[in-house]
Amino acid sequence: MEVLKIATAGSVDDGKSTLIGRLLYDTKSLTSDKLEAIEKTSKQKGYDYLDFSLATDGLVAEREQGITIDVAHIYFSTQTKSYIIADTPGHVEYTRNMVTGASTSQAAIILIDARKGVIEQTNRHFFINNLLRIKDVIVAINKMDLVDFSEEKYNQIKADFSQLMQKRDYKDQNITFIPVSALKGDNVVNKSINTPWYKGQTLLEHLEVLNHDDVFNTGTPRFPVQYVIRPKTEQFHDFRGYAGKVYGGQLSVGDQVVALPSKTTSTIKDIYVYDQKYETASRRSSVTITLEDDINVSRGDMLVKVNDLPTIDKQFTATISWMDSQSLRTGNKYVLQHGVHKVLARVETINHKINPDYSGVEDNVSALTMNDIASVSFKLNKAIYYDSFIKHRTNGSFILIDTQSNNTVGAGFIQ
Amino acid sequence: MKKDTSTINPLENEAIYIFREVAAQFEKPVLLFSGGKDSITLVRLAQKAFYPAKIPFPLMHIDTGHNFPETIEFRDRLVKELDLELIVRHVQDSIDEGKVKEESGKYASRNSLQTTTLLDAIEEFKFDACIGGARRDEEKARAKERIFSVRDDFGQWDEKNQRPELFDMLNGQIELGQNVRVFPISNWTELDVWSYIQKENIEIPSIYFAHTRATFLRDGLIWSADDEVVYREEDEVVENRLVRFRTVGDMSCTAAVLSDADDIATVVQEIKNSTISERGARIDDKRSEAAMEKRKQQGYF
């Protein structure tokens, strides 16, 4: 079954958790014991409606403070698809979580409170989803019940948001507006009788018809080698298989490939998934590839098609989303993990900070603090084999790892 | 030869990728094996990840001593058939050594005692990655768990200080003494697991299918009447019922459900129609709203 990962973004009290709870409830995905717990807690709190946000707010601290503080994953499925929702918080200080949630998603829902309209936070949510090149974005204009389901209000917000869209870098992003009330259930799963002026799909209807091409960015085939399989058994004495996932495009038996960094050429002999042989390894599948020639390939190396080489370089400039409480400064060294390939990277220059609300850039920045987004130039101790993020979402991204704490401290998108 | 791999379940692709990252990034991984359907699924995925080579790490069972006999039989057969290494460590030993105290009373269970035995075993073998079958859909606190989840040298989970996981990239860098819990089927739901077992024709212990069992009722749940393991009041009447188990944990805290689903197809159908969550039959989670989170902080799976 098809799996669609969706990121959500909204400000505090925009009703994000309620929207997810509503999706679960109306698709009958909430089990009776969970529903019972929600009913019980809602009653204890003295609410006269069901507080669906209780279905998703997982950690004790969150339940105490009544806010979502980390990425939570929520699952539900329909006849056509399995859905995974990354519930990411909307506070200013949690850009890091939003970037994280969006990085694994193919679609995003941005919530807007119909009473408040497009606010500064909305700029940020849109900026991040655009930066991460999420192909399909749904703008859910929520709490329509509190503005009497006003078409005028809806159109005003749509017009304001369209202003914002003028500023985006990634123009091919598909954007859909839907007027909803998560609390009351209008246009989430079921069509609302309160918005006769809205002729579009409900939120779920929209998600249901999205297909592979609508949500997955394409590129050119890149095969980073994760692991070399050498069984050393009687039956598979000379077997040498390169295990990995195919990104961007497909690879087939007989394809001429180049191994990087050695630039040795060979031909794909067999493609295995478990004990089955396949003609073609499709995009995003985990396979094991054998080559016609006995060449030296190890973890971190990459197989690509001949005449289709990525950039092989020891320096580049990238847009960085900084995620650590310790600052990034010029001269700092980090482990740079590009897919499954690790090298050492030194910060050469911080070119400028990018305000994630479309208010421009700041020059002369000496350090990046948590949640900053900036253009940074790096120098590496060894070359990596990359594409620009615009051309290849997977092969154009990397993470930075602190050499002391071993924590993931930043994400990068190569320019 | 088959045409292309496009119809392969994306969740399988993801799990295989995770298994290969574990084998590549860690010195001494281990697969935590309970004999339950999730860990059996993990074994199949690991086979797929490394074929035609053998699974490059051992399995470890933290044995509460309160097992369903069917799962132990099954475990031993599987290990033999696949020629795997199996390590067993016993909660009973931790009790005998005075490291943990057996719980008493009506809801006594050895489930939370497993943590000590597990942490001791990790230290004994110097495991740096423990692969488990936990899924994010099981429970609210699990929904926030990372795929690579770092534990400090006390085995503890710091839920507020988790590493962000971006794109497919898994950061397994740790210091000596730390270990990583790895969850390859994080993104699977209960139905995904059952559908996979059906599609792959994976054998699972017989207690997952409907059978007649001596049981008694408590708190609206059906318990196996095994007087040695499961505490029973005198007025709790034993009766034969047609039941099956949806999860297989410590016998003293795993309740059965009434069911006539006696093969995989009817089980999948039952799960599809079910309105009760899987862990609804696990009394260990019912202790308080934050039960799982607390156990996880202490080093539970």
From TrEMBL, chain A:
Its EC number is 2.7.7.4. Coiled coil: none annotated. One of its GO terms (molecular function) is GTP binding. NCBIfam families: CysN (TIGR02034). GO terms for biological process: sulfur compound metabolic process. It is an enzyme of class 2 (transferase). Keywords: ATP-binding, GTP-binding, Nucleotide-binding, Nucleotidyltransferase, Transferase. The keyword tRNA-binding does not apply. Residues 1-215 form the Tr-type G domain. This is sulfate adenylyltransferase. PANTHER family: TRANSLATION FACTOR. CDD domains: CysN_ATPS, CysN_NodQ_II, CysN_NoDQ_III.
UniProtKB/TrEMBL annotation, chain B:
SUPFAM superfamilies: Adenine nucleotide alpha hydrolases-like. Residues 29-255 form the Phosphoadenosine phosphosulphate reductase domain. It holds the Pfam family PAPS_reduct. GO terms for biological process: sulfate assimilation. It is an enzyme of class 2 (transferase). It comes from the Bacteria. The keyword Nucleotidyltransferase applies. InterPro entries: PAPS_reduct_dom, Rossmann-like_a/b/a_fold, SO4_adenylTrfase_ssu, Sulfate_adenylyltrnsfr_sub2. Keywords: ATP-binding, Nucleotide-binding, Nucleotidyltransferase, Transferase. Its EC number is 2.7.7.4. Belongs to the PAPS reductase family. CysD subfamily. This is Sulfate adenylyltransferase subunit 2. It comes from Olleya aquimaris.
